[in-house]
Amino acid sequence: MRSDRSQSAPLGIKIAAAVGLAFLHLPILLIFVYAFTTEEKSYQWPPPGLTTQWFAATWARPDVWQALGLSVQVAAISTAIALVLGTLCAAAVSQTRFFGREAISLLVILPIALPGIITGIALRSAFSLAEIPFSFWTIVLGHATFCVVVVYNNAVARFRRTSGSLIEASMDLGADGFQTFRHVILPNIGTALLAGGMLAFALSFDEVIVTTFTAGQQQTLPIWMLEELVRPRQRPVTNVVAMVVVLATLLPILAAYYLTREGDQIAGAGK
Amino acid sequence: MTPAVAFQKTSRHFGAVRAVDAVDLEIKPGEFFAMLGPSGSGKTTCLRLIAGFEQPTAGSISIFGERAEGVPPYRRNVNTVFQDYALFPHLNVLDNVAYGLMVKGVSRDERHRAAEDALKLVQLPGYGGRKPGQLSGGQRQRVALARALVNKPKVLLLDEPLGALDLKLRESMQEELKQLQKALGITFVFVTHDQGEALSMADRVAVFNDGRIMQVGAPEDIYQRPASRFVADFVGSSNVLPPDFVQRYAGERRWGSLRPEQIRIRRDTSGDGVAARVVSRHYLGAATKLSLDADGLRLHATVPSGAAIPEDGAHVMLTFNRDQLHLMEEQA
């Protein structure tokens, strides 16, 4: 049975896999190509000519910088909030037993299982009801709801693999709660938190639906792109920004993937 | 003399479960003390009460005369060797051992020197640079021991420390632990469910059942004079005799225990004695152990090699000296 794996797959499956990958990734390549087109009003195929002028044009547009700045700030602060809340929640759920523990686990994961539009509507009506004006902070709160889930999931998995007696051993050897957190817990869950944080950042960075419901006049980068597509003015600028966004979110996600994979080996070596 | 550890009517209840129930206990300084019992008997909870991971629901605990209730684990001069060793996977062996000194603020050079000494003590010199994942089970155990001893605890707690080791390693570690304890003079409190281990290593043994102590005493006391039916059943290979049987042969209506080597076997079935039938024979080398059926009561007797051994199914008479029959209570 095992040798089947090393044999090469039938031609049909190879073709199917290639078609599947092409279906997934060709549209993304198209975005890259259009970033270099000389035609700025509509997406014409093939591009009549190639140019790099849109990079300069993008650089010069203050609205791009404003949207980018807002997105980075929102993502950074939501991730920070998520790191604190997600870690604490994961610690509580995995280290202690209490009534309703499983229910809490489910409730924390729910925001990411629900369609974003539900989260968005729910938050919007909650903010209106509480008469909170829509602002930078309402966007951050909206994003934090799903960022917490990502951090929580990563942290809880690592906590489960970290033996509870490590904490007892640390206390037994004279370390108080803070020292135990710093010298034992943090080094053991560090990579999981980094991975969770990166995923949370990437999620927040390209979020559209919840943002539409929780933003006031502010435009995050994805919202800005959506608006740009409606107005046919310097369209390739949008593509340049899209390229940057793809790279900016892909790299952290790849890094997170490698960090958690390596973390598995580290945690596995402990037992 | 102030006891190393004293329990006074100490209880630890988890809801309706009485894990430890009104236990009185005194452990002497410098003693190698074993807590023996089946799983769920409360021995590990007692250890955790001493370590400070559990707080008593009632009663008091003192360690070298100081009240320990409400004192967190990190303020007790007590260290633990955990059942799963609980070595920190992200630190190397030297930093694992030096951890206790590190959190106390001892300088890097000094704590590494002390850790190296502790590693020598457990015969792992030069292993400091390795990660715990690169060590064998026996080596991890020694590291766990060094990590506890480097803090010079007044009491060292060991939670089934040999449980995960194979038989040969267990035996050499038993020997080594015993010597280490003698050399250091530290009070060792040791939890095990293995009666052989408890009897061979400890100065005194406490036998636990259902959150209570059934008997405390030297290994010979526990083995030869079990205080109750439970102790005789759990600790020894002794025959436990019900009151009916004891009344018939010894006149008193109490539980009794009789060691297998104290039963004599006679082929001639006339005369006094307990009539029995041989069920099976187990050759042990120095002796042969017989399983006997005496009117529904299962008994064991050993016959030294060289003596005539009755065949399976043979009818025999059993005799024993009245004063070798040890009388005991049903409950402690």
Automatic annotation (TrEMBL), chain A:
Domain ABC transmembrane type-1: 68-256
Subcellular location: Cell membrane
Principal location listed in the UniProt entry: membrane
Membrane-topology descriptor: Multi-pass membrane protein
Keyword Membrane: yes
Gene Ontology CC entries for this record: plasma membrane
Domain of life where this protein originates: Bacteria
Cited Pfam families: BPD_transp_1 (PF00528)
The protein's name: ABC transporter permease
PROSITE patterns listed in its UniProt record: ABC_TM1
From TrEMBL, chain B:
Domain of life the protein comes from: Bacteria
SMART domains xrefs: AAA
UniProt xrefs under InterPro entries: AAA+_ATPase, ABC_SmlMolc_Importer, ABC_transporter-like_ATP-bd, ABC_transporter-like_CS, Mo/tungstate-bd_C_term_dom, NA-bd_OB-fold, P-loop_NTPase, Transp-assoc_OB_typ2
Listed GO CC annotations: ATP-binding cassette (ABC) transporter complex
This protein's UniProt keywords: ATP-binding, Nucleotide-binding, Transport
GO MF entries: ATP binding; ATP hydrolysis activity; transmembrane transporter activity
One of the GO biological process terms: putrescine transport
Residue span(s) of domain ABC transporter: 5-235
Family membership: Belongs to the ABC transporter superfamily.
PANTHER family: SPERMIDINE/PUTRESCINE IMPORT ATP-BINDING PROTEIN POTA, SPERMIDINE_PUTRESCINE IMPORT ATP-BINDING PROTEIN POTA
Protein name per Swiss-Prot or TrEMBL: ABC transporter ATP-binding protein
